[in-house]
Queue: 2 jobs
Job 1
Amino acid sequence: MSTFAWIAVVIIIVTSVGLLIARDWRVSIILLAVQYLAMFILALLHLPLGMASVKVVSGWMSSAILGMTRSGVPDNESDEENIWPRGRLFRLFAAGIVGILVAGATPTVDNIMADAGFAVTAGGLLLIGMGLLHLGITSQILRVTLGLMTVLAGFEVLYATVEGSVLVVALLAVINLGLALVGSYLMIASSSKEAESS
Amino acid sequence: MSANAPILWILVPMTFGALLLFISNQRALSVLGGSFAVLLALTAQFVPIEEAMRIGTFSLKVDSSFTIFGRILLIDPAQGSLLALIYGGTALWFFGAEAAKTAIRIVPLGFMITALMVAAIAVQPFLYAALFIEMAILIAIPLLTSIHTPPGKGVVRFLIYQTLAMPFILLAGWLLAGVEASPGDLALAAQSASILGLGFAFLLAIFPLYNWIPLLMEETSPYTVGFLLWILPTITIIFGAGFLDRYSWIRSSPQLILALRSAGLLMLVTGGLWAAFQRHLGRIMAYGSIAETGFSLLALSIDPRLGIPILFLLIPARALGLAVWSLSLTVIKENAETLRFGVTRGMLRVTPFASAAVLIATLSTSAFPLLAGFPARFALWENLARVSVGSAIWMGIGILGLLTSAFRSLAVVSMAEEYTSWRPRESLTQMIMLGLGVIGLFILGLFPQSVQFFLSELPLMFEHLGR
């Protein structure tokens, strides 16, 4: 199981960095869905299969909600992607710094989190760090939603090691779905004026 | 016959709110929502929980707990007055919603938000409250922005900051349990206190995390923002006081008292001073509400036997003050394109009731004598001065800033061109609601004991605080 956990961490590195640098929303949604799969593997180490499945299913449903909404919204990619220092190189550099910070913090946090396991702690912290980084460098609604969902996914991985309550899992699933719905609502709202003016 | 308190005051209003989504008549929504909230408030105040009530041959007992997924929603018998206060305040906002022309959104969604905030107080273990607060935040987004208008930066920041609070509070709750188990572990205690502080800093929008409030006041309807600026911090502070009540090591920590006092003063002084230099009536209200949160934090920082009653005394004044303030700003905004000073100059002749109400609400927040905010702030100031004269002086500086903003607002709205005629454009409903609100502000200021009926029992909801 430990090997699977480390594979999940590698997947998280790929997906979270991919989410940071991907420009196509379709790629972002796919990466988010894969990220939830990795999160499921890590959650499975501390939660029963049924409860861990709730997390991945709600994550995938959230990804589907965001994808379906985004597909119906006209393209309005701003130039913010190309403006220095927000280009791909900068994002990769920032992701590298987050990676180093996570590597440094993992042993301490693992100790605090009742020895959750290095892989679980590293995976959770990576998701939180990359999500926060994402939130810090974008103002696009879809990206903000992806950032928040990434942070919450990281938190859920860590929190699953110490709290196995059914109510908490259910409420977190509702919050994930709610966040996706709110993100979709805001995406539709932000496109409404552009559609009118075009 | 038996009923269940969490079903009555959480699930029923939530369902009622969902049903109201299908009504699109402003007046019907306002009257229905307000009346139902009053009914909930009255039942909370007068129907005892966990005690059989006999009326003739009819007997009713309201159970206090409701089990869901192995956890409990528990409404303590001592929390009846708090529920009355919350739903009474909500009724106030709903009745004013027709005048603000926001009833279609604020009444249904407001019911759901209020119910979730009540669930946040009721859930056991109590740290799960963060999850319910987050759900309320998500429901607040459609309240703040229409699907036909692009969301501004304020809405996005509100969503981000409030969402980030939840993980911190949940993690802190778990760490605090660890501290309880091994009280000698100072490092763990410091870590949990820091994480908890960060969580509450996001949730209560403590300096410098409050930049979304002025942005929201510029972007959206002041009335809907005002509602959120009342319900969210009020319940969050009660939730925070619950942490203090539960953990004796937090309660007795001198560092925490100092942190609460510093945060409160920072909120009050920055809120007051920033308000004094604004050139936008909405932003002044935003900073006024930030200062209000500062007052509440200061109340928590003094001796709980005095601070907790003051904290509860601040709640009705905040509810009524913000309701009058935001309703009057909504009316002014309806008649002027924005709330900038340049545009609202001379509005006293166009919206006399609203302009006067803005001034009175600002003065009430600024602790002006005879108004609702005065009794609680005066008591707070007096007690703070006993603990620290320096802090009392800083509190005075904050209040001075708020007073300056009130007089600047007065100058702007009354500064009409010479020979400009009076052209009042307020509707009868708006005039009645604003008039009643202003009278209420005076009543609360002149007779603060009038709300003691609700407030006197409230400190009993805490096991240790305020006793």
Job 2
Amino acid sequence: MATSAVSHSAAHGAIHVEKTGLWSWITTVDHKKIGILYGATAFTFFLIGGLEALLLRIQLGTAENTFLTPEAYNQLFTMHGTTMIFLAVMPLSAMFFNYLIPLMIGARDVAFPRLNAFSYWVFLFGGLFLNASFLFNAAPNAGWFGYANLTSKQYSPGLNIDFWVLGLQILGISSLAAAVNFFTTIINMRAKGMKLMRMPIFVWMSFITQVLLLLAFPVITVALILLTFDRVFGTHFYVPAGGGDPLLWQHLFWIFGHPEVYILILPAFGIVSEILPVFSRKPLFGYAAMVFSGIFIAFLGFGVWSHHMFATGMGPIADTVFSLSTMLIAIPTGVKIFNWIGTVAGGSLQMRTPMYFALGFIAMFIIGGLSGVMHASPPADLQQTDTYFVVAHFHYVMFGGSIFALTAGAYYWWPKMFGRMLNEGLGKAHFWLMLIGFNLTFFPMHFVGLHGMPRRVYTYPDGLGFELMNQIETAGSLLLGSSFLIFIYNVIRTSRRPADAPADPWNGATLEWALPSPPQEFNFAVEPEVHSRDPLWETKRERGGTLPEPARVSSAGIHLPNPSYWPLIAALSVLAFFVALLMFAHTGPWPMVAAGVMLFFSVCKWAFEPAG
Amino acid sequence: MTSWARAFGRTGRVAPFLVLALALAACGGTSAEYPQSTLHPKADFARMIDGVFMTTVWWSLAVFILVEGALLYVIFRYRGKPDDAEPNQVHGNTTLEIIWTAIPALILAMIAVPTVRAIFETYEVPKGGDVLEIEVVGHQWWWEFRYPEYGVTTANELHVPVGRTVLLRMKAYDVLHSFWVPQFAAKRDVFPNRTTTLWFRADSTGYYSGQCAEFCGVQHGRMAFHVAATSPEEFDGYVKGLQATAMPAAAPAGTAPADSAAVRTTAAAPVTTTTLAATQQGSQTPAVRPAPRDSVPPPAPATPAAGSVAEGQKLFAQRGCVACHSINATKPMGIGPNLANVGSRRYIGAGMLQNTDENLALWIKDPQAIKHGVLMANLGLTIEQARSVAGYLRTLK
């Protein structure tokens, strides 16, 4: 019975008191707490990355500006890209994976709760490691793409590139551990009756994302290991003077890098596909097409990497193949956009804040998709690549796409996560300011790029016609930045109000809305059973209306994993290992060996500690 | 709070129009307003690309209007109230879904056909006619151009004859760079371990901007260059001038045929007190402002103080300049830019500064102060000595 999802036994009288305090967060293995940790950390890094972007924009606000030195500019644009991709958008998605996947599939936690805690701590330390480079005035400075052979010891002798290479390795460990965890969770822990084709679409997109992570991250891991060997041990994988090939790096990087784009956008597709039906009061249009187009996008995503390399002159056959495979991706992407519009059409639209952001996502993502088709054509790309046209394109996809969708998700699931409704007026103000600021910042970049402004330049001369558009972009970026101040104000204001959000404020369709807001530690007192794609709507229809407010129940008799600090110690060991590698030239191998021993010991303790 | 929402709602409805107006304003423009634009091609290669690009633009624009229009329509048409009856629970429509899979596929085919044709055309160097081969070497952070046919080398200012196909064979000296003259041809990356090629045939004379387009280190932003497309006759004269620099350079400037006029006309020009005063203050930040890149006249005539040319030549030889720079276009050094005709170039520092006596002197005195990270050494010259060297270099045409 679908109703069992919501029929919490009211027999348990005592209200379970959950552990709070700092220690409970440090030792937590609860996917919901870990999700909140991911969210808070990633949002902090998002603000740092945003501030970096504002500094870049101020520098470019006028021609021949000297606000930033060339070296500072290069460090900031490298850290902006690296931060936004690895420390903001990916972990913000991870927040939703963590918080929502178990709730949506009717599970009490992820498959490996301690591994989950380990993933978070490694992510946090990876982010701190990367940003610690600023303290040594040695922030990475060769771009988030780190093209060889500029990254070789000869041309980048400082620690800048070492911080970048090792920082990404740390973050890769976190991503891979999390991907194994969610993959296993989704395969094994779905509620009774939740067949694959009944999974919420967000879970489907998350599942595809985990597959992409599992297949793409090993490639960058190998590429980074080779670069580490070049830099630390004097090998020549990418060093032409020793017979190596810098082009090898580009292939390896983009075999990872293009799937990475879908790692950043597929969770956003999932979020929007959950929100649109709820606020249209109508099921997702073409569920199966949405699932299979997601799979198709991910599959094709591994066959298009060289479209980042048309300017290297690969020859007409390779250019043709990668051009056509890239254009093919537009077809499943188009299917998604049309099905979203089909979801809205014929509905009864409830224009709440999450819906604004979800619709804004579609409108902006269309623009990013169309400019993507433009440079899928290699001749056109030869003019556009490495110019601001491409900067415009991927910000329409990454910001207009991912960030709009993640923001929509934040407004939508906020009441579930924190038991409080965010203010609607402030939410809509946030939306309009963000939409206007975003377009003012990035739309002129199409034109300034076509008019010949390259990327990654710390300044530009007068007389090339770049000034006016850059001024507009800088003004827009300040508006865009300030829109998040409204969000922060909204969050602070909301946190001071009573936690009185109902369990199901939006008339949701998925299982999490059957639980109290916020859910109890064990999620489901009784494991739910599912009979359709929109189990909660089905239940509500059967009952002829809304559901009763779920009662908080005792956790007596519910098995939960014990908290543990060993994942944290293991993550610290990982950090120590990479710090030792960074210092290798000074300290030799023994600190690394010590860190390895510590890691082994902490993993043993974690494994043999009683689970509950 | 609802009033807030209303206020922002009104602003929001105006936003698309603002964006559109902005777009239209930026779309137009002439090559004088946007001298580095990809939208004003001046050679066959760039024209071919422009054709494909405009195909993608029209299709994209059509799709943009239709799809964004459909989105806005459904948003306004299906706005509901909380107490409205539940709408019809549609789960999909196979026919519709097949249609909106097929139509994008057809549109992509319309883009793919000219794309593939242009891919093959742009890789194929036009047959027939006489192809001028030029070797391009990208350096941190300047460009070297060699003409094997004529046995000469120059830097940062590429001269090509209009109407003749130019084939560039390109390599990098150090790290990856990307050669880009938007009005002639698209980008082609250059590598230290392989040769890449690019071709174009300029169809109108003029002075065009180009820039490195692959991030290549701290001064990537200052790795510009220029292309002077000239008549074949003018180009011949240019090449002969470069070949003439092979003559023994021992004779003091003034006896070199190309220099005499310049030196004679400028020898009388006094060094103004204002410039001296400015330099004597020894300010850390030199009073150089990079000049606007277009609307720059041919280089200002050299105005060295009398007698300083010979002094400058001596310093150039004695103080180590010759370790990196050749003043003989037929004998490239390959380390620093060849200076055989530096006096006739419009810019110094890879497109950074207008080539004037003052700018050149300040550059020679302390290149790091002007372009931090540049690989040119500070030779510890006094400003007077730097002026002398600049005066000498400005006579090299």
